[in-house]
Amino acid sequence: MTFDLAVMRSELRGHCGYEDETDLPDVDCDLFLNRSLWEVVFDLPLREKEKTQTFQTVVGEPNYEVPIDFESLRVISVLEPTSGKHNKLERDSAASYERNYSENQNDQAIPEFYLREHDCIKLRPVPDDVYTITLKSLINIEDLVHDNDVPNTHRVVYEVILYGAVYRVFLKNNDFISSSHFKAYQTDQIAKLTRRNVESKEETDTSLAGVEAVIPNYP
């Protein structure tokens, strides 16, 4: 059975005692379901949130645009061709970056630090060569928009998303008892999934996450 957005709308109406779109329009269903989706994907360590992207540095250019559709950066390292060792790029503070940043060409080298500002990654030192930057991040799961859209999560999460929408409908209607019941059920399910590690990440994220730079191996 495909548990797509059309089915989720029908299930949502059924749990809340509505017959059809006249009672609870599709646009309202989608809003409640997506609000629940946002909450669930934030609370659970879903593999579908993990993404790896790459881009190339430019000699003398410290600033690089990155997509802003992610929750956080995860890993930064530099691959040394001689040793094969990955040296992690450390996250820099704004004050430290400004204090140590240099535009002098003689100070250019392989990056050791990074600073994220909105949709920009600032590298320090300024690259002295073309490096492949690998950006590992946690991205946001896409919203449910079309009738045949299916949540980009494991199937066991679908019901958790549904009940998150159900309690929101009751809350809007000031039915606090029913809302609390379904909210408690959803919270319990999220806790169970977390304990069972249904979608566990292979390693725990830390604040020192980020980017990987690969040094070109010239003959």
Describe the protein.
The chain has 219 residues and is an alpha+beta fold. 26% of the residues are buried. Strand 4 and strand 5 form a beta hairpin. The protein folds into two domains: 5-46 and 140-196, no CATH class; 50-139 and 207-214, no CATH class. The strands form two sheets. Strands 1, 3, 4, 5, 9 and 10 form a six-stranded mixed β-sheet that branches. A four-stranded mixed β-sheet has the order 2-8-7-6, covered by helices on one side. It has five helices and ten strands. It is elongated and about 70 Å long.
Briefly, what is this?
33% of the residues lie in helices and 21% in strands.
Structural class: alpha+beta
The overall number of domains is 2
Main beta-sheet strand count, sense and barrel state: 6 strands, mixed
Q: What shape does the CA trace take?
A: elongated
**Strand percent estimate:** 15-25%
The amount of helix comes to: 25-40%
DSSP helix count? 5
Cα end-to-end separation = 56 Å
Uncertain spans, ≥5 residues at pLDDT below 50? 198-208
| Quaternary class | single chain
- Mean pLDDT across every amino acid position: 83
The radius of gyration is 23 Å
Number of strands: 10
Question: What series of H and E elements makes up the topology?
Answer: HHEEEEEEHEEEHHE
Quick tags:
alpha+beta, 2 domains, 4-stranded mixed β-sheet, single chain, 219 residues, 6-stranded mixed β-sheet
Task: Break the fold down into its secondary structure elements and pairings.
Blueprint: H1 5-16, H2 26-43, E1 50-56, E2 63-65, E3 70-75, E4 77-79, E5 86-87, E6 90-91, H3 94-100, E7 113-117, E8 120-124, E9 132-139, H4 158-172, H5 176-196, E10 211-214
Helix pairs in contact: 1-2, 1-4, 2-4, 4-5
